[in-house]
Amino acid sequence: MLAEKLLLNLLITIAPVLFCSALMDNKPKLNTPFLCGLLQSAAALCCMIFSYSNYGFSWDLRYVPLIMAFLYAGPVAGGMVLISIISARILMGGDTVLFGLVNCILTALVPLLLMKKFWNNPPNKRVMLTTLIGGWSLILCYFSLHVFRYFEGNIFKLDFNIPDLLMIGLIATIAIALAAKLNEGMIERNKMKDEIQRAEKLNTLGELAASIAHEVRNPLTVVKGFLQLMQQQEAGKNYEYLSLVLSELGRAESIINDYLNFAKPKFEKIEEFQLNSILTEVVMLLDPLAVKQGVQLESQLDSNDFSLNTDRNQLKQALVNIVKNAIEATPEGGKVTIHNKFDQASASILISDTGKGMTPEQLSRIGTLFYTTKDKGTGLGTSVSLRIIETMRGKVSYQSEPGVGTKVTMTLPVGRNEEWA
Ligand code: ADP
Ligand code: MG
After folding, report:
1. Under CATH, to which class is 2-197 assigned?
2. Ligand 2 centroid vs 328 CA: distance in angstroms?
3. Dist CA 142 CA 163 (whole Å)
4. Structural domain 270-420, CATH architecture
5. How confident is the model over 186-213, as pLDDT tens digits?
6. Residue-range domain boundaries for the chain
7. How far is the centre of ligand 2, averaged over its atoms, from the C-alpha of 383 (Å)?
8. 414, 345 contact by CB (below 8 A)
């Protein structure tokens, strides 16, 4: 009998969460503390109606909605449930009214005090905390029962044995843990929905920005052309000014190109080529920069070459951006090495430097559009490279230690007959 009543109570305690997730899915505005308080109050009252009576005591799970309301919906909802339980208990009357009321208020005290700190915890910890508070209410109930019996001279009789008490504890713990877990699931789902909506908005904004960037590039090319013509005819002071204007225009143009390449990498010419030839070209291209910085740029290439079938220029661009970053991060006297390794399924390119490295926080932000730590940086290089390699169905991973250096591993799948575009 006790088990049936408690299991029915268990269903009642999880009903408010199920009700909320089923009915308010498309109406998030309805999910207010007031409505939550109403639902949890109804659950607490139902628990009291379907409780197991034993010598004037009612055994039920009314404290589960009380704790849930305080922790998950705030003081208004919690207060509503508390008032409902107190009023119902007074109406029910009997010898044990005082015991019921004191117990209820003491149980409400802990979630009320912990309410603010509760939300500083991650979801799993919140479920654990709610379960622990549920356990606290059980222990409290057990002790206050003994205290009452002591003061009231054993007028209360109890015929519970240990298995019954254990069963009450177990079902109450399952009920509160389940209610908390379901609630967290609902919160997570709502968060994901918001996130998807935000991502959709950002996607539209990104497309808009790409089309604006595209439109701006054309007049910029015209202006640059005319300025170059003007510069050829200019011999006076304006010559220097025009040089400056042209170099800044060139910078603007390269930022726009990088952005457009990030927004939509264009694989225009798919061809078959050897990976080693690209790596050699990249080293040749960036050697002057390395020399200028006093950095040794070295390549140690595997003699077994690997043939790839993709847009050669895009791959070169991706490699140049990453190797350039490695050179820029390395102080004078440092070294940047490019290795490659082939196996049957993939080709790996390892770019390691003895530069300043990155902290875990910086490492987590790498590849985020416009993230840069350089004065004249654009924060586009890494994002473009990652995007290109991703489009080629490859992978890039970073390992870095501050003060020691960074290792970038790029893995490209074998795609001799496949078209990467
Ligand atoms: P930018 O080079 O314009 O700053 P990137 O997207 O190429 O933009 O790089 C973003 C940031 O990542 C850099 O500003 C730098 O702080 C960090 N970074 C990238 N590669 C390395 C590296 N090999 N060592 C240390 N920091 C790096
Ligand atoms: Mg860069």
Report:
1. mainly alpha
2. 8
3. 14
4. 2-Layer Sandwich (3.30)
5. 889 888 988 898 888 888 888 888 888 8
6. 2-197, 203-263, 270-420
7. 9
8. yes
